[in-house]
Design goal:
This protein is an alpha/beta fold and about 230 residues long. Helix content is about 25%, strand content about 25%. The protein has one domain (about 5-220): Dihydrofolate Reductase, subunit A. It has 7 helices and 9 strands, in the order E-H-E-H-H-E-H-E-H-E-H-E-H-E-E-E. It has a 9-stranded mixed β-sheet. The longest helix is centred in the N-terminal third of the chain and has 12 residues, at about 30-45. It binds NADP nicotinamide-adenine-dinucleotide phosphate (NAP). NADP nicotinamide-adenine-dinucleotide phosphate binds near residues 19, 112 and 164. NADP nicotinamide-adenine-dinucleotide phosphate binds near residues 50 and 92.
Amino acid sequence: MRSRPHVLLSVAASLDGCLDDTSTDRLLLSNDEDFDRVDEVRAGMDAILVGANTIRADDPRLLVCSEARRQRRIRAGLPPTPVKVTLTESGKLDPAARFFTTGDNDKLVYTSTSALATVRDRLGSVSAVIGAGDPLDVRAVLADLAERGVERLMVEGGGTVHTMFLAAGVVDELHLVYAPFFVGQADAPRMVNPAVFPQGPGQRMTLTEARQIGDVVLLRYLPRHDD
Ligand SMILES: NC(=O)c1ccc[n+]([C@@H]2O[C@H](COP(=O)([O-])OP(=O)(O)OC[C@H]3O[C@@H](n4cnc5c(N)ncnc54)[C@H](OP(=O)(O)O)[C@@H]3O)[C@@H](O)[C@H]2O)c1
């Protein structure tokens, strides 16, 4: 067995690299056809991970929407929808968030070892809470997921989480969808934050697909890394 799952990072961004705008309403970047494509990708996963801010901002359900896809998973001996995973240091997540309350699949919350007791106090009744190093180490999270049988992990935002996974060199596949507009706000969340990325100018990624999906475009890249 591999020591970590295959990691697919999936993101939709505006042409100026924003994940969202600064309003409280959810910004629609994709279109229906692309949402359906993402649903198919989700249906092929063992787990889906988002950061705590994404749960606070978007209250996502993170389920496989299509009944036909859920049935396909059940026939394959899988739960109807992948395990949900999040990262938090503060533990400040609402136990009534849809991340916790929808789907009869497992929920996993990873935090640093030093925050474990606090986060368990806040969320232990709605999720498993796991300490993964001090500070939290993305490779420890991945190793724990692998031990739990997760072979394919989809990372779905936000920018802090993207940055951590990309900078750690643990992304095996990048799906990037560009919406046909600019957000133009200095404070809007970016696809990634400044960091030292192994996928820098000296390590150009391999572009494996560029596909038009209605008014958006999907770019698929394979980053290179050593493990
Ligand atoms: N367009 C897209 O594809 C897409 C997808 C997802 C999200 N989004 C957008 O992205 C925005 C959120 O992005 P974001 O960068 O602000 O937040 P984020 O990446 O969703 O979450 C960041 C939070 O996750 C926790 N976290 C991250 N790294 C950690 C670590 N190493 N150890 C412990 N906890 C860690 C922390 O939670 P605590 O603060 O609780 O400690 C941190 O504040 C929202 O506007 C959302 O709508 C867009």
